[in-house]
Amino acid sequence: MSLPPVAFVVQRYGPSVTGGSEALARAVAERLQERFEITVFTTRAADYVSWRNELPAGEEQLGGVRVRRFPVEEERDLAAFNAFAEPLYVRERTHDEELEFLRRQGPCVPALVEALAAEADRYHAVVFFTYLYYPTYWGLRAAGERSVLVPTTHDEPPLRFSIYREVFARPRAFGFLTAAEERLVRERFPLGERPGLLVGMGIETTAEPEVAAFRRRHGLERPYALFAGRFDAGKGCSELLAFHEHYRRRHPGGAELVLIGKLAMPLDTQPGVRHLGFLPEDDKAAAMAGACALVCPSPYESLSIVLLEGFALGTPGLVNARSPVLQEHCLRSNAGLFYEDADEYAFALDLLARDAALRQSLSVNARRYVDAGYRWPVVLDRWRALVDAAARP
User: Taking CA atoms, which of 11, 128, 159, 212 is between 20 and 30 Å from 68?
Assistant: First the structure.
């Protein structure tokens, strides 16, 4: 018996792609194959800054999933885009200006939308990831009848644009990653009686990371806090460096700040800050497990996979209090601390670095939180129910 066909629409996709919503889409697609026949509609872009066509055109199989890639029509000049977009964030906009914002933001892929419109009727459901981009806005207009939106929403200026009221008006069902995200969406948009399910994401981690060996290889003798991911000013990283400098002035010789992942901003030499670059998965897990805290400085989060990965390894969180999602994770789990300014960051990091009993208590809570709500056997049941909620009668 053939499986019901389901389409996933996401702006980037594949093993070379890093990004929260993209990682979520791939992880879910590969695990829903036992229940649905998944086809992914995506672009040839690997980089969300330029949307340059780098990946092969056409169709391929990845992890057993059919992936169809369509060309992006124009690369993005980020400086030019920001110069156009930033004035729109602080004044009233026309509908045409907002559509121009959507086009310039990218990825502009009309061929994807045309293919989706031509084939939408054959799908049991069409699942769109991320509210913000061109494929979701135009794709929902083309294939909204049996659609699911997984908006990965956080409070940012474009969320106030009228075109996004259109986006949230079209889906039949919604998948939210956290309760804080769902509250934000329901406060902003009239979802009515359409189903909204709290689906989340499953977390998998290395069972026994080689922490001691990792520390020896990198000369990490003192406690350290870890940042993992794209180190970018837009993710609160400039503020993090300033706050860590403030901490080190108060506590000379205190915990280091270790960065792993890609640098997307200049990093000057700063005492107590080290960048180790990209790490293999086993080393990434060891880096997380050995840290006294996993630092999440971004105020803009809809889930934070990296925080949950740290929790799964028993590492407490140290997060930006301006993110309702991150703060809620810490409060619900009782597994992390949050900060609003440099003094609070310094106090919290000092506490986590020197109080082993506190770290152990938070560690137990962190693992329990992930096991209860963010393991795949639990999460996949929610995703199956979400797809069925939007499916054809």
Answer: 159
Cα 212 to Cα 220, 223, 287, distances in angstroms: 9, 12, 10
Q: What is the mean pLDDT of residues 299-323?
A: 94
CATH number at residue 356: 3.40.50.2000
Strand order in the sheet with 273-277: 273-277, 256-260, 224-228, 293-296, 317-320, 336-339
Clarify whether residues 18 and 86 are in a common domain: yes
For residue 160, give every residue at least 6 positions away whose Cβ sits within 8 Å of its Cβ, in sequence order, or none. none
Summarised one tens digit per residue, pLDDT across range 266-286 is 888 888 999 999 899 899 999
Q: How confident is the model at residue 356 (pLDDT cuts 50, 70, 90)?
A: very high
pLDDT for residue 393 = 62
Q: Quick one: 369 and 283 in the same domain?
A: yes
Same-domain pairing of 225 and 120: no
Range of the structural domain that residue 285 is part of: 211-373
The 10 Å CB-count burial string (b at 16+, else e) for 180-211 is bbbebbeeebebeeebbbebbbbbebbeebbb
Looking up tokens 């390894």 gives: 313
